[in-house]
Amino acid sequence: PFTGTGSLLLTCCHFGCVAMGGDLDPRVLRGIGKGGKDVMSNFRQYNIMDKCGGLIINDNSKLTVWRDGELFDAIIGDPPYGVRAGAKKVGKRVKKNKEPKPIPEDCLEPHIPQCIPYAMEDVLVDLVQFAAKTLLVGGRLVYWLPTTVEYKESDVPLHPCLKLLSNSEQHLAGKFRRRLITMEKTCTFDDNIHNIDMREYNRQQYAPAHSNFAMKYTGDA
Question: At 122, which helix (H) or strand (E)?
Answer without folding.
Answer: helix 120-134
